[in-house]
Amino acid sequence: MLRGGKVGLRARHEDDVPILHTELHDDVVNAARAEGRPWRPITPGSKDSPFVGDDKEQRVPFSVVELGSGTLIGTATLWNIDNHNRSAHIGLGLLPSSRRKGYGTDAVAVLCHYGFVVRGLHRLQIETLSDNSAMLRSAERNGFVREGVLRSSAWVMGEFLDEVLLGLLAQDWKPYA
Ligand SMILES: CC(C)(COP(=O)(O)OP(=O)(O)OC[C@H]1O[C@@H](n2cnc3c(N)ncnc32)[C@H](O)[C@@H]1OP(=O)(O)O)[C@@H](O)C(=O)NCCC(=O)NCCS
User: What is the pairing mode between strands 7-10 and 123-129?
Assistant: First the structure.
């Protein structure tokens, strides 16, 4: 397990999936804002769940747990891993009861450690909706800088929203900033 100050990132366990599915995917607004594709109902236990599957090369899914108790609190993913350009994207989703406790900021820190130290990547990237203050702040607290606005790039529940593109280079990363 990878450890931060407050959270641990471990492998996805089979019994994490129904919890993540109910708390994150079945919340239509949360899923529409976070998943970047049209929401549709997915049968429990289906291989189509966004929390199932690991293509090993390009996408590494973690379950996020509270360090002290080991309780599942969310999902964290390094995705679109490109070993030629040595870059990857970060994705994060915490259960509603675990938000706003500093876990998101710490989970980004642990993903940076995984990306830069374990995988030897050079650049990490995050795209998030421009009104997602918690994600923007979690990224910026770890040294990510805003590189641009993708205007009207996300169709979310009946409207186009802007996304902010944030990037962090290995040489600018300060562990646990
Ligand atoms: C985005 C998310 C991962 C952030 O994790 P979190 O644990 O809630 O964030 P933290 O507690 O670490 O807070 C980070 C900062 O954002 C601020 N913040 C948190 N929630 C906020 C909110 N709803 N509105 C405004 N600011 C907020 C905190 O005060 C903190 O600011 P500080 O650094 O100045 O103290 C989490 O809220 C989440 O899973 N949201 C739903 C899914 C999602 O949006 N995923 C991202 C898709 S790109």
Answer: unpaired
CA of 163 to the centre of ligand 1 (A): 16
pLDDT tens over the chain, length 177 residues: 999 999 999 999 999 999 999 999 999 999 999 988 899 999 888 888 889 877 778 999 999 999 999 999 999 999 999 999 999 999 999 999 999 999 999 999 999 999 999 999 999 999 999 999 999 999 999 999 999 999 999 999 999 999 999 999 999 999 865
Q: Residue 94: CB within 6 Å of ligand 1? A: yes
Q: Among 101, 105, 161, which residue has the most ligand 1 atoms within 8 Å of its CB, making it the best to mutate?
A: 105
- Residue nearest atom 44 of ligand 1, based on CA coordinates: 34
CB distance 177 to ligand 1 below 6 Å: no
Nearest-CA residue for atom 27 of ligand 1: 134
The amino acid present at 11, given as its one-letter code, is: A
d(CA 54, CA 162): 29
Q: Which domains does the chain have, with CATH numbers?
A: 2-125 (3.40.630.30)
- Closest residue by Cα to residue 60 from 118, 145, 135, 3: 118
